[in-house]
Design a protein that fits this description.
Blueprint lengths: L1 E3 L6 E3 L2 H11 L4 H11 L4 H17 L10
Antiparallel strand pairs: 1-2
Helix pairs in contact: 1-2, 2-3
């Protein structure tokens, strides 16, 4: 999946897991529910998944692709 920021034309190439995260975000899921769903769909260590979800959400927020996310 590719995201294109319409104001900057910056391109973000999402891997399979990040693309699924994007889909779940678009469906209105909260972070905890999204992590639970991703753990069910992918064979990944829960701590690693949490770090990667947090990093992806931070990147998306820093680039104004999502709003309302605070990593704090």
């Amino acid at each position: 999946m590719v995201l294109i920021h319409l104001h900057t034309n910056e391109i973000f190439d999402l891997n399979e897991t990040s693309a699924r995260l994007w889909e779940l975000l678009a469906g209105g899921g909260d972070v905890a529910a999204i992590e639970t769903q991703l753990r069910q769909e992918f064979d990944v260590d829960p701590d690693q998944l949490h770090r990667e979800v947090t990093a992806t959400l931070s990147t998306l927020a820093q680039n104004d692709l999502i709003t309302g996310y605070d990593a704090a």
